[in-house]
What we know:
Elements: E1 6-10, E2 15-21, E3 27-34, H1 38-43, E4 49-53, H2 58-67, E5 71-75, H3 77-80, H4 90-101, H5 114-145, H6 158-167, H7 174-205, H8 209-214, H9 222-231, H10 241-248, E6 252-254, E7 263-266, H11 272-292, H12 299-306, H13 311-325, H14 332-335
Parallel strand pairs: 1-4, 4-5
Antiparallel strand pairs: 1-2, 2-3, 6-7
Amino acid sequence: MNNVTIIGIDLAKRVFHAHGAHADGGVAFRKRMARSQVLPFLARQPTCVVAMEACASAHEWGRAIRELGHEVRLIPPSYVKPYVKRQKNDTADAEAIAEAGSRPTMRFVAVKTEEQQARSMVFRTRDLLVRQRTRLINALRGHLAEHGVIAPQGPAHLKTLAAAIDAAESTMPQLVVDVGRVYLEQVDRLSCEVAELEKILRREAQCGEDTRRLQTMPGVGPITAMAVEAFAPPMSTFKRGRDFAAWLGLVPIQHSTGGKQQLGRTSKMGQRDIRRLLIIGAMSVIQWASRRSARPGSWLARMLDRKPLMLANKMARSVWAMLTKKEDYRDLGSAAA
């Protein structure tokens, strides 16, 4: 085992499998161990590369293994799958992880800190509660539509449903009124919890220099800034802003062959949370510019005439530039007139 250069570990809840390989790719060992044996086993190994699939528990393991002196490489599971030989089992998965981790052109996931994971938990919890609130409102709209009460979509029209329930108490069955009020109580409770989580996100967004800097860009608020802080790797990972935009999935899909470029729709193959928020922010900027009209001859005005939906791509590249150069946002109208 002294010549081991890379160890692939198939993570699990209780039973882990490790595959050690030499520099030439030969098998050094295959080992099955319990959860409590993983760190003591790795502590006895010489300093080497430890590769794992990027999953929910991989970042905690990555931080613990890094403290032992090893180099940690987290690999997206979709990049490991092509290296699995025939039948899938834990031993074959560990070997595939070691094989994928040894490739010089492989792309890896940065190990997150505890602070990043904590902030991502707040962000994802808010997102979950918003989805639950939307489901409750849509369910209430559907039930009341069966009794002739019609209201537009969205939480802004929830007062219409509440007023309809109160006004129709004498005409609707009492059971419908009682259940409708249960829906309204649940929606109010979720709205209060979402508001509390948004306060936490705003407070955290004011604590960091990078998050404050990102909020100087139009269309980027505290929630988007916290999403970049929580989900994006260090900007030094990307050579240019276009690489960051491609990582987010804000570039066209390529079907190029024979030296001819064929570009399709936006790929959406990347970090969906940041991508979704940047698109929402871009659409808000476009709506503002459409109402007030952008400065004639500015970059924004020219972009709106050609490809307005590419503003999210531009915002992603600007995020990379701002965080890399440690500069605040520069006004597009004056910078590209």
